[in-house]
User: Fold this.
Amino acid sequence: MAEKSLSELIASLPEEERIILSLHYLKGHDAMAIANLLGVPERAVLSLITIAKTRLLAALDPSN
Assistant:
């Protein structure tokens, strides 16, 4: 099976996770700013960042 690129892995994330990761890592917004922008609790943003990072790291792990 061919390995996916990071951009392909990010594209495969659920939309909500892609948006939040993009705002956080590419646009430099902190969790509070993202929460205010999206109208969601800050803890939800923090949780989704953690979930998405975990999902990406697992997909990038060559032992999987």
Summary: The chain is about 70% helix and 0% strand.
